[in-house]
């Protein structure tokens, strides 16, 4: 049996990313700490997240093809990302990972990679 070469392949590819992002933005759209920094219509935000996570976890480089180099910190600088919002974002992602039923060791690997990224995105101290 061939072992998957990437997290993307191991979790089932784009269909799983799509399910994860859909679940995630359902939580984001209802989270009082996150609503102020996200648009009312999350359609385009979710589309970009699908492209990013596909690439981030070893799938096709769709994000770069569509948007250029990720430069995620720079792209997020216009938004106040506090430790509190980082934690809210991670809580929404953890809930989405649970709902998507991504199995171990991939659930933990994904959450750890996204936790490091979320820490990197912080640009505003506690208020």
Automatic annotation (TrEMBL):
Pfam families: Bac_globin. InterPro entries: GlbO/GLB3-like, Globin-like_sf, Globin/Proto, Hemoglobin_trunc. GO terms for molecular function: heme binding; metal ion binding; oxygen binding; oxygen carrier activity. The keyword Manganese does not apply. Heme binds at residue 119. Transmembrane segments: none annotated. Signal peptide: none annotated. The keyword Iron applies. It comes from the Bacteria. Keywords: Heme, Iron, Metal-binding, Transport. Its cofactor is heme. Belongs to the truncated hemoglobin family. Group II subfamily. This is Globin. The lineage of its organism: Bacteria, Bacillati, Bacillota, Bacilli, Bacillales.
